[in-house]
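Postdoc handover notes: sequence design on the structure in folder B. Input tokens:
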């Protein structure tokens, strides 16, 4: 959260009153007449209450000034100056909602104080907003909520105040209030994609996937060519077990942004989950063409070859078991030559894929030296290739990393 810059407010300019020049000359320098002078200067056509309020302001007694200004605006709500000064007084008392109403009344009566009002609002908004940012940074969520509420009272349509307050409500365990604020934020700006995603995050935490889908469909209606919306939609479809819808959403997103690394990774993982290893490695290969040191794509490509090798091993075992059963039923102790050739072919296919996995797994542990899973699978591949000592080293490193993780859960 970045603090906002403020602009120092300007007090309204007061033009000299020429008809009072002679009186000014007589009493200039006479401090005992200072209050009387202020009263005479501003007493023209304004009310007694406004005149008295200005005297109190001169004395920096805003509490008494507010009392008089409230009487002035009650008598004449169209008095733009009285409303403006009353707003200033309310702000100094921390009554920001009332400040906003007074400023709005002043602007409605006359645009004369518009620049000053804008400046004072900006100052007080920034003060409260920055207090909220500081409190949130210190995880004092209650203080942050109070500050952001005050900021919204000052500027009720400021999107960042809504966003930050919603985040704080979520942290305070008040998701419904957070969701309502995000809805208001979307009403202010229907293209605020982050607000949609924040709502989806809250619904997902509560496993309200249908509500997440509804929010994303609303967002998609506003931005049909937003790949991130489609990606989020695909993820939720996958959580719901709707793989066909998930595949369709990912493909639609990739038509818009074909080189998006995250989209390709997620689609590849979806293929892996469905045991479509060829589809998975195809997506990972696309990533490696423009990002050859991408850990996820490298690692999962290695896993693909491991899985393929295991598949061929399983097929070989099944073929050998079937051949043995057929030989017994035929009262023959020797398998046919075709059965032996099939078994040899499957053994070679498995070995070839285990070898193909090695460069990817070796690169994976070089790219991320703290990934226990990568070391485990490297050890598994070494075992399949008969390299026992190297397998022991990889498994040992995996155990060390897992123990370190148990000792310090913050580490991966």
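Designed sequence:
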């Amino acid at each position: 959260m970045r603090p906002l810059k403020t602009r120092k407010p300007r007090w309204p300019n007061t033009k000299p009153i020429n008809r009072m020049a002679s009186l000014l000359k007589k009493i200039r320098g006479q401090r005992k007449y200072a209050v009387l002078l202020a009263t005479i200067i501003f007493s023209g056509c304004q009310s007694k209450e406004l005149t008295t309020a200005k005297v109190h302001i001169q004395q920096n007694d805003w509490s008494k000034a507010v009392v008089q200004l409230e009487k002035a605006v009650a008598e004449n709500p169209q008095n733009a100056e009285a409303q403006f000064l009353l707003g200033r007084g309310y702000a100094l008392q921390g009554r920001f909602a009332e400040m906003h109403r007074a400023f709005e009344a002043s602007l409605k009566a006359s645009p004369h104080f518009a620049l000053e009002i804008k400046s004072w609002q900006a100052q007080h908004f920034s003060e409260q907003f920055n207090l909220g940012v500081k409190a949130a940074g210190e995880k004092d969520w209650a203080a942050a909520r109070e500050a952001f509420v005050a900021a919204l009272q000052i500027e009720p349509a400021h999107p960042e105040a809504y966003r930050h307050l919603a985040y704080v409500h979520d942290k305070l365990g008040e998701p419904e209030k957070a969701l309502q604020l995000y809805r208001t934020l979307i009403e202010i700006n229907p293209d605020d994609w982050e607000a949609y995603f924040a709502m989806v995050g809250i619904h997902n935490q509560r496993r309200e996937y249908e509500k997440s889908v509804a929010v994303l469909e609303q967002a998609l209606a506003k931005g049909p060519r937003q790949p991130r919306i489609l990606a989020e939609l695909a993820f939720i479809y996958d959580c719901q077990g709707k793989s066909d819808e998930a595949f369709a959403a990912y493909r639609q997103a990739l038509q818009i942004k074909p080189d998006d690394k995250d989209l390709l990774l997620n689609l590849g993982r979806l293929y892996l989950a469905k045991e479509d290893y060829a589809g998975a490695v195809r997506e990972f290969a696309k990533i490696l063409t423009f990002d050859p040191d991408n850990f996820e794509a490298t690692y999962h490509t290695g896993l693909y070859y491991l899985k393929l090798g295991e598949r061929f091993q399983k097929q070989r075992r099944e073929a050998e078991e079937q051949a043995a059963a057929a030989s017994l039923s035929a009262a023959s102790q020797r398998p046919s030559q075709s059965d032996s050739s099939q078994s040899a072919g499957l053994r070679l296919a498995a070995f070839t894929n285990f070898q193909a996995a090695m460069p990817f797994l070796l690169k994976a542990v070089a790219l991320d030296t703290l990934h226990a899973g990568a070391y485990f699978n490297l050890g598994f591949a070494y075992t399949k290739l008969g390299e026992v000592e190297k397998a022991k080293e990889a498994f040992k490193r995996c155990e060390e990393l897992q123990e370190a993780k148990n000792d310090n859960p913050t580490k991966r």
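Context for whoever picks this up: Residues 1-134 form a domain with the Serine Threonine Protein Phosphatase 5, Tetratricopeptide repeat fold (CATH 1.25.40.10). Don't rerun without checking with the PI first.
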